Amino acid sequence: MPSVLQTIFTFPLRGLAWLGDQGTRGVAAVVFIALAVPPLGAVLRPYVTEAILVLLCISFMRVDLAALYGHLRRPALVATATAWTTIGVPLIVGLVAHTTGLDRSAPGLFLALMLQGMASPMMAAPALAALMGLDATLVLVALVSATAIVPFTASLFASLFLGGMLSISPLALGAKLLGILAISLFAATMIRWIFGAEAIQRHKRPIDGFNIIILLIFAAAIMGDVASDFVAAPLFTIGIAALAFAVYFTLLAVTTLLFRRIGTERAFAVGLMVSQRNLGLMLAATAGALPATTWLYFALTQLPIHLAPYLLTPIARRLTARPQQALTDAVGP
Q: 0.90 cut: is pTM over it?
Protein backbone atom coordinates (compact mmCIF):
# COMPACT_ATOMS: atom_id res chain seq x y z
CA MET A 1 0.00 0.00 0.00
CA PRO A 2 2.74 2.51 0.80
CA SER A 3 4.32 1.84 -2.64
CA VAL A 4 0.93 2.45 -4.28
CA LEU A 5 0.54 5.76 -2.43
CA GLN A 6 4.07 6.71 -3.36
CA THR A 7 3.32 6.02 -7.01
CA ILE A 8 0.09 8.05 -6.83
CA PHE A 9 1.86 11.09 -5.42
CA THR A 10 4.99 10.79 -7.57
CA PHE A 11 3.39 11.89 -10.85
CA PRO A 12 1.70 15.06 -9.50
CA LEU A 13 4.92 16.04 -7.70
CA ARG A 14 6.94 15.51 -10.87
CA GLY A 15 4.45 17.62 -12.80
CA LEU A 16 4.62 20.42 -10.24
CA ALA A 17 8.42 20.22 -10.17
CA TRP A 18 8.55 20.50 -13.97
CA LEU A 19 6.21 23.49 -13.84
CA GLY A 20 8.33 25.10 -11.13
CA ASP A 21 11.43 24.63 -13.30
CA GLN A 22 9.87 26.82 -16.00
CA GLY A 23 10.53 29.87 -13.82
CA THR A 24 9.64 33.20 -15.44
CA ARG A 25 8.42 31.40 -18.58
CA GLY A 26 5.72 29.68 -16.54
CA VAL A 27 4.76 32.98 -14.91
CA ALA A 28 4.50 34.63 -18.34
CA ALA A 29 2.40 31.77 -19.72
CA VAL A 30 -0.22 32.37 -17.02
CA VAL A 31 -1.62 35.50 -18.70
CA PHE A 32 -1.85 33.87 -22.13
CA ILE A 33 -3.80 30.94 -20.71
CA ALA A 34 -6.08 33.31 -18.79
CA LEU A 35 -6.77 35.32 -21.96
CA ALA A 36 -7.21 32.26 -24.19
CA VAL A 37 -9.80 30.57 -21.96
CA PRO A 38 -12.33 33.24 -20.84
CA PRO A 39 -14.83 30.70 -19.38
CA LEU A 40 -12.14 29.73 -16.89
CA GLY A 41 -12.42 33.19 -15.36
CA ALA A 42 -16.15 32.86 -14.75
CA VAL A 43 -15.59 29.57 -12.94
CA LEU A 44 -12.69 30.82 -10.82
CA ARG A 45 -13.85 34.36 -9.95
CA PRO A 46 -15.58 33.29 -6.70
CA TYR A 47 -12.23 31.97 -5.46
CA VAL A 48 -10.16 35.17 -5.82
CA THR A 49 -9.89 35.72 -2.06
CA GLU A 50 -8.88 32.11 -1.42
CA ALA A 51 -6.20 32.28 -4.14
CA ILE A 52 -4.78 35.45 -2.60
CA LEU A 53 -4.68 33.85 0.85
CA VAL A 54 -2.83 30.82 -0.54
CA LEU A 55 -0.29 33.02 -2.36
CA LEU A 56 0.33 35.00 0.81
CA CYS A 57 0.62 31.83 2.87
CA ILE A 58 3.19 30.32 0.48
CA SER A 59 5.28 33.49 0.58
CA PHE A 60 5.24 33.72 4.39
CA MET A 61 5.94 29.99 4.61
CA ARG A 62 9.15 30.36 2.59
CA VAL A 63 10.61 33.32 4.47
CA ASP A 64 14.31 32.77 5.19
CA LEU A 65 14.46 33.85 8.85
CA ALA A 66 18.26 33.94 8.96
CA ALA A 67 18.40 36.25 5.93
CA LEU A 68 15.60 38.33 7.41
CA TYR A 69 17.49 38.88 10.68
CA GLY A 70 20.69 39.65 8.77
CA HIS A 71 19.14 42.51 6.84
CA LEU A 72 17.32 43.86 9.88
CA ARG A 73 20.73 44.58 11.43
CA ARG A 74 21.18 47.24 8.71
CA PRO A 75 17.76 48.88 8.77
CA ALA A 76 18.47 52.16 6.94
CA LEU A 77 18.13 50.76 3.42
CA VAL A 78 15.11 48.64 4.34
CA ALA A 79 13.41 51.61 6.02
CA THR A 80 14.04 53.82 2.97
CA ALA A 81 12.66 51.23 0.53
CA THR A 82 9.65 50.65 2.79
CA ALA A 83 8.91 54.37 3.08
CA TRP A 84 9.18 54.84 -0.68
CA THR A 85 6.84 51.99 -1.61
CA THR A 86 4.20 52.59 1.11
CA ILE A 87 4.26 56.39 1.43
CA GLY A 88 6.14 57.96 -1.48
CA VAL A 89 4.40 56.06 -4.30
CA PRO A 90 0.75 56.54 -3.18
CA LEU A 91 1.40 60.18 -2.25
CA ILE A 92 2.84 61.01 -5.68
CA VAL A 93 0.07 59.10 -7.49
CA GLY A 94 -2.61 60.90 -5.49
CA LEU A 95 -1.09 64.36 -5.99
CA VAL A 96 -0.54 63.87 -9.74
CA ALA A 97 -4.07 62.52 -10.26
CA HIS A 98 -5.57 65.38 -8.24
CA THR A 99 -3.50 68.03 -10.05
CA THR A 100 -4.38 66.70 -13.51
CA GLY A 101 -8.08 66.36 -12.63
CA LEU A 102 -8.13 62.61 -13.20
CA ASP A 103 -10.12 62.09 -10.00
CA ARG A 104 -12.95 64.11 -11.57
CA SER A 105 -12.68 63.15 -15.24
CA ALA A 106 -12.14 59.39 -14.78
CA PRO A 107 -13.04 58.37 -11.20
CA GLY A 108 -12.90 54.62 -11.93
CA LEU A 109 -9.39 54.87 -13.34
CA PHE A 110 -8.33 57.17 -10.50
CA LEU A 111 -9.60 54.62 -7.97
CA ALA A 112 -7.61 51.88 -9.74
CA LEU A 113 -4.39 53.90 -9.72
CA MET A 114 -4.80 54.87 -6.07
CA LEU A 115 -5.47 51.29 -4.98
CA GLN A 116 -2.43 50.23 -6.98
CA GLY A 117 -0.29 52.89 -5.32
CA MET A 118 -1.61 52.06 -1.84
CA ALA A 119 -1.01 48.31 -2.25
CA SER A 120 1.99 46.55 -0.78
CA PRO A 121 4.45 44.79 -3.13
CA MET A 122 3.49 41.33 -4.37
CA MET A 123 4.40 38.47 -2.08
CA ALA A 124 5.86 36.69 -5.11
CA ALA A 125 8.40 39.49 -5.68
CA PRO A 126 11.27 37.78 -3.78
CA ALA A 127 10.74 34.56 -5.74
CA LEU A 128 10.74 36.49 -9.03
CA ALA A 129 13.88 38.36 -7.98
CA ALA A 130 15.57 35.04 -7.18
CA LEU A 131 14.55 33.59 -10.55
CA MET A 132 16.11 36.62 -12.23
CA GLY A 133 19.32 36.31 -10.20
CA LEU A 134 18.76 39.49 -8.16
CA ASP A 135 19.13 40.13 -4.42
CA ALA A 136 16.01 38.33 -3.22
CA THR A 137 16.88 38.78 0.45
CA LEU A 138 16.76 42.58 0.27
CA VAL A 139 13.45 42.35 -1.60
CA LEU A 140 12.09 39.97 1.02
CA VAL A 141 12.97 42.13 4.02
CA ALA A 142 11.61 45.32 2.46
CA LEU A 143 8.49 43.41 1.40
CA VAL A 144 7.86 42.10 4.93
CA SER A 145 8.22 45.53 6.49
CA ALA A 146 6.03 47.17 3.83
CA THR A 147 3.36 44.50 4.22
CA ALA A 148 3.35 45.00 7.99
CA ILE A 149 2.48 48.70 7.77
CA VAL A 150 0.32 48.78 4.61
CA PRO A 151 -2.97 48.35 6.54
CA PHE A 152 -2.22 51.65 8.27
CA THR A 153 -0.80 53.57 5.28
CA ALA A 154 -3.58 52.35 2.97
CA SER A 155 -6.19 53.49 5.46
CA LEU A 156 -4.51 56.91 5.69
CA PHE A 157 -4.32 57.49 1.92
CA ALA A 158 -7.85 56.16 1.38
CA SER A 159 -9.15 58.81 3.78
CA LEU A 160 -7.00 61.53 2.15
CA PHE A 161 -7.74 60.88 -1.52
CA LEU A 162 -10.65 58.49 -1.99
CA GLY A 163 -13.32 59.88 0.30
CA GLY A 164 -16.60 58.10 -0.48
CA MET A 165 -15.34 56.30 -3.59
CA LEU A 166 -14.87 53.03 -1.71
CA SER A 167 -17.74 50.82 -0.62
CA ILE A 168 -16.04 50.40 2.78
CA SER A 169 -14.56 52.97 5.13
CA PRO A 170 -10.78 53.57 5.24
CA LEU A 171 -10.71 52.12 8.77
CA ALA A 172 -12.52 48.98 7.62
CA LEU A 173 -10.11 48.70 4.68
CA GLY A 174 -7.13 48.74 7.04
CA ALA A 175 -8.80 46.22 9.36
CA LYS A 176 -9.53 43.81 6.49
CA LEU A 177 -5.98 44.08 5.16
CA LEU A 178 -4.63 43.37 8.64
CA GLY A 179 -6.96 40.37 9.03
CA ILE A 180 -5.98 38.86 5.66
CA LEU A 181 -2.28 39.20 6.44
CA ALA A 182 -2.71 37.80 9.95
CA ILE A 183 -4.59 34.71 8.71
CA SER A 184 -1.96 34.02 6.05
CA LEU A 185 0.90 34.47 8.51
CA PHE A 186 -0.73 32.14 11.06
CA ALA A 187 -1.34 29.43 8.45
CA ALA A 188 2.25 29.71 7.18
CA THR A 189 3.61 29.49 10.73
CA MET A 190 1.63 26.32 11.39
CA ILE A 191 2.86 24.73 8.15
CA ARG A 192 6.48 25.55 9.03
CA TRP A 193 5.96 24.15 12.54
CA ILE A 194 4.38 20.90 11.29
CA PHE A 195 6.65 20.12 8.33
CA GLY A 196 9.80 22.10 9.13
CA ALA A 197 11.81 24.60 7.09
CA GLU A 198 14.08 21.87 5.68
CA ALA A 199 11.16 19.98 4.13
CA ILE A 200 9.85 23.20 2.60
CA GLN A 201 13.26 23.94 1.09
CA ARG A 202 13.61 20.35 -0.13
CA HIS A 203 10.31 20.62 -2.02
CA LYS A 204 11.10 24.03 -3.49
CA ARG A 205 10.45 22.99 -7.11
CA PRO A 206 6.97 21.49 -6.56
CA ILE A 207 6.04 24.48 -4.39
CA ASP A 208 7.14 26.80 -7.20
CA GLY A 209 4.92 24.85 -9.58
CA PHE A 210 1.97 25.01 -7.20
CA ASN A 211 2.54 28.75 -6.84
CA ILE A 212 2.26 29.16 -10.62
CA ILE A 213 -1.06 27.27 -10.60
CA ILE A 214 -2.44 29.60 -7.92
CA LEU A 215 -1.21 32.58 -9.97
CA LEU A 216 -3.16 31.16 -12.90
CA ILE A 217 -6.32 30.89 -10.78
CA PHE A 218 -6.00 34.52 -9.70
CA ALA A 219 -5.12 35.85 -13.17
CA ALA A 220 -7.91 33.91 -14.87
CA ALA A 221 -10.42 35.06 -12.26
CA ILE A 222 -9.80 38.76 -12.85
CA MET A 223 -8.97 38.57 -16.58
CA GLY A 224 -12.01 36.57 -17.63
CA ASP A 225 -13.80 39.59 -19.17
CA VAL A 226 -10.81 41.15 -20.95
CA ALA A 227 -11.58 39.47 -24.29
CA SER A 228 -15.18 40.69 -24.31
CA ASP A 229 -14.06 44.18 -23.22
CA PHE A 230 -11.62 44.25 -26.11
CA VAL A 231 -14.32 43.28 -28.60
CA ALA A 232 -16.72 45.90 -27.20
CA ALA A 233 -14.18 48.75 -26.94
CA PRO A 234 -10.81 47.81 -28.50
CA LEU A 235 -9.19 51.27 -28.43
CA PHE A 236 -10.19 51.88 -24.82
CA THR A 237 -8.91 48.46 -23.74
CA ILE A 238 -5.60 48.95 -25.58
CA GLY A 239 -5.25 52.37 -23.94
CA ILE A 240 -5.78 50.93 -20.46
CA ALA A 241 -3.25 48.17 -21.20
CA ALA A 242 -0.71 50.76 -22.38
CA LEU A 243 -1.28 52.74 -19.17
CA ALA A 244 -0.71 49.59 -17.09
CA PHE A 245 2.63 48.98 -18.83
CA ALA A 246 3.60 52.66 -18.51
CA VAL A 247 2.90 52.71 -14.76
CA TYR A 248 4.81 49.46 -14.23
CA PHE A 249 7.95 50.53 -16.06
CA THR A 250 7.83 54.08 -14.68
CA LEU A 251 7.84 52.71 -11.11
CA LEU A 252 10.68 50.35 -12.04
CA ALA A 253 12.80 53.07 -13.70
CA VAL A 254 12.21 55.81 -11.11
CA THR A 255 12.93 53.46 -8.20
CA THR A 256 16.10 52.13 -9.83
CA LEU A 257 17.34 55.70 -10.35
CA LEU A 258 16.46 56.75 -6.79
CA PHE A 259 18.34 53.80 -5.27
CA ARG A 260 21.25 53.70 -7.75
CA ARG A 261 23.76 54.63 -5.02
CA ILE A 262 23.40 51.20 -3.44
CA GLY A 263 24.48 49.60 -6.72
CA THR A 264 22.60 49.14 -9.97
CA GLU A 265 21.83 45.46 -9.37
CA ARG A 266 20.35 46.00 -5.90
CA ALA A 267 18.53 49.15 -7.06
CA PHE A 268 17.02 47.14 -9.90
CA ALA A 269 15.86 44.52 -7.37
CA VAL A 270 14.13 47.22 -5.28
CA GLY A 271 12.60 48.63 -8.47
CA LEU A 272 11.20 45.22 -9.36
CA MET A 273 9.62 44.93 -5.92
CA VAL A 274 8.04 48.41 -6.07
CA SER A 275 6.61 47.86 -9.56
CA GLN A 276 5.03 44.52 -8.60
CA ARG A 277 2.00 45.78 -6.65
CA ASN A 278 -0.25 43.35 -4.78
CA LEU A 279 -3.59 44.34 -6.32
CA GLY A 280 -5.06 41.02 -5.28
CA LEU A 281 -4.76 42.06 -1.66
CA MET A 282 -6.75 45.22 -2.38
CA LEU A 283 -9.34 43.19 -4.28
CA ALA A 284 -9.77 40.89 -1.31
CA ALA A 285 -10.00 43.82 1.11
CA THR A 286 -12.69 45.56 -0.98
CA ALA A 287 -14.52 42.26 -1.68
CA GLY A 288 -14.29 43.06 -5.41
CA ALA A 289 -16.96 45.78 -5.14
CA LEU A 290 -15.26 48.03 -7.70
CA PRO A 291 -16.35 49.93 -10.85
CA ALA A 292 -15.96 48.26 -14.24
CA THR A 293 -13.04 50.48 -15.29
CA THR A 294 -11.19 49.67 -12.06
CA TRP A 295 -11.70 45.94 -12.66
CA LEU A 296 -10.45 46.27 -16.26
CA TYR A 297 -7.31 48.12 -15.17
CA PHE A 298 -6.62 45.54 -12.45
CA ALA A 299 -7.03 42.77 -15.03
CA LEU A 300 -4.67 44.39 -17.53
CA THR A 301 -1.98 45.04 -14.91
CA GLN A 302 -1.48 41.27 -14.95
CA LEU A 303 0.17 41.64 -18.36
CA PRO A 304 3.25 43.61 -17.22
CA ILE A 305 3.33 41.85 -13.84
CA HIS A 306 3.67 38.42 -15.46
CA LEU A 307 5.52 39.31 -18.66
CA ALA A 308 8.08 41.82 -17.36
CA PRO A 309 10.14 39.35 -15.24
CA TYR A 310 10.65 37.16 -18.32
CA LEU A 311 11.47 40.15 -20.53
CA LEU A 312 13.81 41.75 -17.98
CA THR A 313 15.76 38.62 -17.04
CA PRO A 314 18.54 39.27 -19.63
CA ILE A 315 19.06 42.77 -18.15
CA ALA A 316 19.13 41.37 -14.61
CA ARG A 317 21.69 38.72 -15.59
CA ARG A 318 23.87 41.38 -17.21
CA LEU A 319 23.74 43.51 -14.06
CA THR A 320 24.61 40.58 -11.77
CA ALA A 321 27.43 39.51 -14.10
CA ARG A 322 29.23 42.88 -13.76
CA PRO A 323 30.34 42.46 -10.10
CA GLN A 324 31.42 38.88 -10.80
CA GLN A 325 33.47 39.99 -13.82
CA ALA A 326 35.01 42.83 -11.82
CA LEU A 327 36.02 40.39 -9.08
CA THR A 328 37.53 38.02 -11.65
CA ASP A 329 39.52 40.85 -13.23
CA ALA A 330 40.80 41.97 -9.82
CA VAL A 331 41.73 38.53 -8.46
CA GLY A 332 42.73 36.85 -11.68
CA PRO A 333 41.47 33.65 -13.33
A: no
